[in-house]
Amino acid sequence: MAYKNKDYMKIYSRKNRKRIRKYQLKYKQTEKGKLNYQINNKKRKFIRHNITPEKYLLMLNSQENKCLICGEIMEHPQIDHNHKTNKIRGLLCRNCNLVLGLTRENTATLLRAIDYLNRYEKM
After folding, report:
1. What is the CA radius of gyration of the chain?
2. Structure confidence at residue 44 (pLDDT)
3. Cα 111-116-120 angle, rounded to 5 deg
4. pLDDT tens per residue, range 48-74
């Protein structure tokens, strides 16, 4: 929606932040709100990673909707990419994607974590 007076909208938004947020949260609970949130969330994901919805679906189907690391069926597939080159590697489940992110994609850290788990596996 285009507003004629952007300054007015900025002021209104600042003054009514809590009221607007309350309305947004209530709207997100409706069926229409949930659907719009999912659509917009996917659009942002596609734009951020420079991928088309068709390519995303092709990747999802080629992976049989399974995470490339753990092999589990994914509820909300995450687009995994190399943070240095921004090249997409594949789709991961949220947990596996978080592991890579939290370790800053450092393979030495991941190998030490594997050694650690193997060492204390029988406890």
Report:
1. 20
2. 85
3. 150
4. 899 988 899 999 999 999 999 999 999
Instruction: Residue 59: name the closest of 75, 77, 41 by CA.
Output: 77
Share the mean pLDDT of the chain.
Answer: 90
CATH topology of domain 6-119: His-Me finger endonuclease fold (3.40.1800)
- Dihedrals phi, psi of 111, to nearest 5 degrees: -65, -40
CB 3 within 8 A of CB 9: yes
Could you tell me which residues come within 8 angstroms of residue 53 by beta carbon, excluding any fewer than 6 positions away?
Answer: 42, 46
- Beta-bridge mates of residue 66: 73
Output DSSP code: residue 105: T
